[in-house]
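Q: Okay, next protein. This is FeoB-associated Cys-rich membrane protein from Hwangdonia lutea. I've checked the sequence twice, so it should be correct. Can you predict the 3D structure?
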Amino acid sequence: MNTIIQNILAFSVLAFAIRFLVLKFVWKPKKKTAKACGGDDGCGCH
């Protein structure tokens, strides 16, 4: 029984690590190019 729980936890951690790496380095969402010009943030729209 202890081995089964250990395997489940190990595979869960491995799946989480792989998901993190894929989201961090492979799948990059589109960044918003339009920024709100609220103040002096150097956006050049004033």
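A: Here is a summary of the prediction. Residues 25 and 35 are 24 Å apart (CA to CA). The chain has a mean pLDDT of 81.
Q: Noted. On to the next one.
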